[in-house]
């Protein structure tokens, strides 16, 4: 289809970079509080089921589209289905990435501010009220907008110079370090008195807590945490060599994602119950629980600082991929200046993110369908844009894309039997779209 001059240098580099794009706020920040607000263990089980049965086939599909076309998101669909309107899926992805990045960067700003405050030891203090600390940062218009601006500035600078060399190399070092720190945190969390209740809440399913609404949230969370539905992975896989097995790479990213979600839950909920906090605390849960846990460790401030910096890296690798899809959509065909497009995109995302940044302060009373701007944007992206994008991708691959190309890309670099392709194809053609439609319609009371 056309050749890319840039390519990932190794399979591991691609897998870890894709995992970095997927493992960010979705697995580490959003998953624990969504689980806490939606009943614990039953939500986790449904999330795993959706991730494997629906999210994994979609991830493979996005990889197939990207490597098959060897183009960024919008152009990929134009290449694979010329003289048709299917390129709207890529445009849908660009809009979704823009909206997602607008509120994602607000949380990225919180992580950045916490990281900066932790270095001189300004977070962990004796008898500190960590909920009040988070409220003071989150409720300050100056702090939240400063955090938003600084976070987006880092994104613009990195994307301006291209992300491949920096991200691939650093992902190989920092992603494993993030896993190691999480395991240390889990070991400490589960040894607190009263931690068992938190483990039981997280791992013991209570299906009476499930309802159509939180089943939709579990579906949206599985898409959010795998970064599928907005064609980010289409852009990433367009740089991939043919000797890499797409099913194996997708499986690796999915397993790492579920494992990080498991670690996040085991790090958070034992501490929540040990210290009498509320599991349904919401978006601030991580920023209240982490300092509480680290404050109980020797050299807690040092560990907290290192963990926050690694967490910041995980958040940045995800946001880079979102800004990359927006930037590449406007640079590839018309040969515009990458730096200029990245800067303009960053400014526009910053402007769009201001209302979300002010959702806990000046705009706390302003509601859209009963939700703050932050929560409304999150709901729109996670429960409408991402499932919608996944539905369109499934229909495109299942009914429009050239079957021989899809089959060749699925089997290229793989020792999987052709029966594996048939299973995946039937899932993407029938089960995936049907499940998405049923869950979304049911959650809105239409079915």
TrEMBL record:
Keywords: Membrane, Symport, Transmembrane, Transmembrane helix, Transport. It holds the Pfam family SNF. The chain crosses the membrane at residues 12-29, 41-65, 92-117, 137-161, 173-195, 215-234, 255-277, 297-320, 341-359, 379-399, 427-446. It is found in: Membrane. It is a multi-pass membrane protein. It comes from the Bacteria. Its main location: membrane. SUPFAM superfamilies: SNF-like. InterPro entries: Na/ntran_symport, SNS_sf, YocR/YhdH-like. Belongs to the sodium:neurotransmitter symporter (SNF) (TC 2.A.22) family. This is Transporter. It comes from Oceanobacillus kapialis. The lineage of its organism: Bacteria, Bacillati, Bacillota, Bacilli, Bacillales.
């Amino acid at each position: 289809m056309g050749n890319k001059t840039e390519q990932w240098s190794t399979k591991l580099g691609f897998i870890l970079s894709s995992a970095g794009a997927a493992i960010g706020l979705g697995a580490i920040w959003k998953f624990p509080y969504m689980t806490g607000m939606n009943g614990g263990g039953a939500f986790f089980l449904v999330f795993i089921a959706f991730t494997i049965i629906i999210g994994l086939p979609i991830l493979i599909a996005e990889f197939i589209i990207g490597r098959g076309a060897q183009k960024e998101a919008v152009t990929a669909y134009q290449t694979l289905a010329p003289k048709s309107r299917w390129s709207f899926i890529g445009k849908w992805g660009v809009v979704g990435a823009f909206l997602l990045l607008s509120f994602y960067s607000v949380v990225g700003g919180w992580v950045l501010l916490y990281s900066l405050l932790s270095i001189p030891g300004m977070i962990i203090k004796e008898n500190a009220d960590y909920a009040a600390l988070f409220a003071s940062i989150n409720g300050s218009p100056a702090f939240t907008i400063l955090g938003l601006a600084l976070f987006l500035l880092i994104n613009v600078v990195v994307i301006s110079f291209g992300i491949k060399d920096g991200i691939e190399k650093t992902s190989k070092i920092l992603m494993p370090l993030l896993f190691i720190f999480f395991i240390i945190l889990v070991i400490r969390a589960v040894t607190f008195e009263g931690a068992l209740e938190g483990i039981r809440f997280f791992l013991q399913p209570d299906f009476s807590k499930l309802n159509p609404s939180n089943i939709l949230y579990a579906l949206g969370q599985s898409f959010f945490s795998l970064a599928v539905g907005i064609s980010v992975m289409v852009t990433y896989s367009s740089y991939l060599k043919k000797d890499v097995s797409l099913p194996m790479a997708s499986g690796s990213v999915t397993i790492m994602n579920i494992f990080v979600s498991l670690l996040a839950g085991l790090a958070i909920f034992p501490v929540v119950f040990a210290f009498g906090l509320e599991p349904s605390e919401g978006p601030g849960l991580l920023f209240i629980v982490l300092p509480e846990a680290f404050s109980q460790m020797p050299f807690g401030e040092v560990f907290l600082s290192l963990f926050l910096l690694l967490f910041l890296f995980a958040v940045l690798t995800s946001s880079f991929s979102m800004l990359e899809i927006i930037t590449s959509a406007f640079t590839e065909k018309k040969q515009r200046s990458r730096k200029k497009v990245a800067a303009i995109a960053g400014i526009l995302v910053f402007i769009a993110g201001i209302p979300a940044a002010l959702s806990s302060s000046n705009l706390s009373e302003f509601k859209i369908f009963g939700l703050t701007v932050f929560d409304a944007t999150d709901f729109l992206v996670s429960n409408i844009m991402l499932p919608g994008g996944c539905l369109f991708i499934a229909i495109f691959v299942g009914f429009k894309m050239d079957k021989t190309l899809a089959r060749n890309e699925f089997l290229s670099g793989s020792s999987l039997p052709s029966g594996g392709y048939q299973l995946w194809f039937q899932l993407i053609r029938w089960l995936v779209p049907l499940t998405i439609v049923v869950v979304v319609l049911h959650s809105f009371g239409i079915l």
